[in-house]
Amino acid sequence: MSSVPVNRYRRSSHDKKLDSDAFGDDFDLFDPWRDSNSNTSASLRWIKQPKRQAVYEEKIAPALELPPNEDKYRVKLDISDFDPETIKTTIEGRLLVIEAKKKHHQNNSKNDNERKMYDLPESVYEHADADHLVSYVLPNNFLIVDIPLHNHEHKQRYLESTSSTTNDSHHLLPYGQHRDQSFNYHHFHTSAFTPKVADTEGQKKKLELSLPMKNYRPEQIKVSVKNNDLIIQGEHLSLADRNLEKTYFYKSITLPPGTQTDHLQSHLTHDGHLRIEAPYAEYIPNN
């Protein structure tokens, strides 16, 4: 079993926005859907901005609202030689297509365009939400393409968990007799992280999560905590035409209140599962 270090990022204490340097030099933890109002978002050159959520007349209880795009696939490309004003990003079938013009070309003929096509993994193109693809250029001249992925299995488990016929909440009892009404325990409990609460010594509890990462080595896995969001990235690096290219899967989940993220630990087992543990304290109402 190999230890995987945990990176921690917090919001600034004086407001609800993320610190401008909270994501480091590579912006790997920037989420274009959740962080669109942050200082970081203003420093980007947007190619395709996130589409706004549709507004419905019927309002959903905050605890039942599903967080946006917890699963996604990201492509990161060095575009130092290209004019960012000419970049276009689309998905055509199972291909991610990127078009742009080289910087040294002065005319506007179509022959100046370069068109690169990337064969998406089967697990990506079968679940890709192409209509909500997001792309942008970082200050260090890297192009980021974020492809949201539908998680139909999680959605089905969630609907079954919250249906009127099965919603007796007995499976949520390990999280405590009293639970924070602003948190969606059903969504968390039915996630791909297969969470459970276990007893430890001294009548204490810990939160245990597991995620299959069979095709990744420990150095290719990045575990991060951004406030109470747990973010897992599985990275693959490659060089194409002497330019750096990086792709990775991105899974995230919001941890329940009472999770002591400062003591969160992660390990990769011999059978390829990422095990995550953190002390857990039951929610206690103010009154």
List the helices and strands and how they pair.
Elements: E1 2-4, E2 6-9, H1 39-42, E3 45-48, E4 71-78, E5 88-92, E6 95-101, E7 113-119, H2 122-125, E8 134-137, E9 142-148, H3 152-162, H4 185-189, E10 196-199, E11 205-212, E12 221-226, E13 229-240, E14 243-254, E15 265-268, E16 273-280
Parallel strand pairs: 2-12
Antiparallel strand pairs: 1-15, 3-8, 4-9, 4-14, 5-6, 6-7, 8-9, 10-11, 11-16, 12-13, 13-14, 15-16
Give a written overview of the molecule.
This protein has 287 residues and is mostly beta strands. The protein is built from 4 helices and 16 strands. The protein has helices at 39-42, 122-125, 152-162, 185-189, and strands spanning 2-4, 6-9, 45-48, 71-78, 88-92, 95-101, 113-119, 134-137, 142-148, 196-199, 205-212, 221-226, 229-240, 243-254, 265-268, 273-280. The strands form 3 sheets. It has an 8-stranded mixed beta sheet, with no helix packed on it. Strands 1-15-16-11-10 form a 5-stranded antiparallel beta sheet, with no helix packed on it. The chain is elongated, with a radius of gyration of 21 Å. The N and C termini lie far apart (44 Å). The relative contact order is 0.18.
Could you provide a short overview of the structure?
The protein has 287 residues and is mainly beta. Helix content is 8%, strand content 36%. The strands form three sheets. It has an eight-stranded mixed β-sheet with strand order 2-12-13-14-4-9-8-3, with no helix packed on it. Strands 1-15-16-11-10 form a five-stranded antiparallel β-sheet, with no helix packed on it. A three-stranded antiparallel β-sheet has the order 5-6-7, with no helix packed on it.
